[in-house]
Amino acid sequence: MPVLVASDLDRTLIYSAAALALTMPDARAPRLLCVEVHESRPLSFMTETAAHLLTELGDAALFVPSTTRTRKQYQRINLPGPPPGYVICANGGHILVDGVSDPDWHARVTARLADECAPLAEVQEHLLRTADPVWVRKHRVAEDLFAYLVVERELLPEDWVKELAVWAGNRGWTVSLQGRKIYAVPGPLTKSAALHEVARRTGAGLTLAAGDSLLDADLLLAADQGWRPGHGELADAGWSAPTIRSLPERGVLAGERILREFLRTVRSAT
User: What is the pTM of this model?
Assistant: First the structure.
């Protein structure tokens, strides 16, 4: 039975320049590998050491990237190691099998959303009506499943996010603030549901997970063991659980530590 390793990507394994948290002297900074280019510009990085660890992990376990990114956004990433056979995209709205979305899974997800929470159009309208153009830079809809805003964090009123979370919660939606993005995601749209499906298909015996945001909490709880870095929404809230290990590392070095923990656990289990 394979070990299944499901990990969030952004601010967990890969990092934008703004999220690297290179607090050490320049001469001691780790060497970085660019793993994403967008519009001809380098966008996301991991340490070279983390890249080697991820390659080893891909050979030792079933590695499943688990991201809120759309399929198009995910396909910009060029991770080291063997290509993953399964990828969870759009927060569980799509399971890619050898790079292609599984239509049956997507149909099951969309049917559940129609039954269990307010429609996307209602949430879109609320965001357009209440978000101030002074601090909103972009309104986006992802895969016709959820919505998000790109904002100027220094101008964003903290109370607005809290008020949105209450409004959305009453309609079966979840709100997550990650860097410059505010996500509004249907409650039934989860990485954990997709994880259970991939585990069922592959016959995985042990499941491991990592993530940093509120949208990763269900993924971490669904796995047998989980890790979260010292930054992000979960760290800021002091969130933990008996099967979750909270790591002290922040920024790109946290990604390296998470991969070491994955590999150590996989090797001890096999």
Answer: 0.95
